[in-house]
Amino acid sequence: MNTIDFGRTADDYSRHRAGFPDELMDRLAALGIGGPGRDVVDLGTGTGSLARLFALRGGAVTGVDPATALLDKARLLDARAGVEVRYVAGAAEGTGLPDESADVVSAGQCWHWFRAAEATAEVRRLLRPGGHVVIAHFDWLPVPGNVVAATEALILRHNPAWALAGGTGLHPRWLTDLRQGGFTGIETFSFDLDVPYSHLDWVGRIRASAGVAASLDPAAVGVFSAELTALLADRFPGDPLEVPHRVWAVTARRPAGSAAGQSGPGPA
Question: Which intervals hold domain Methyltransferase type (predicted)?
Answer without folding.
Answer: 41-135
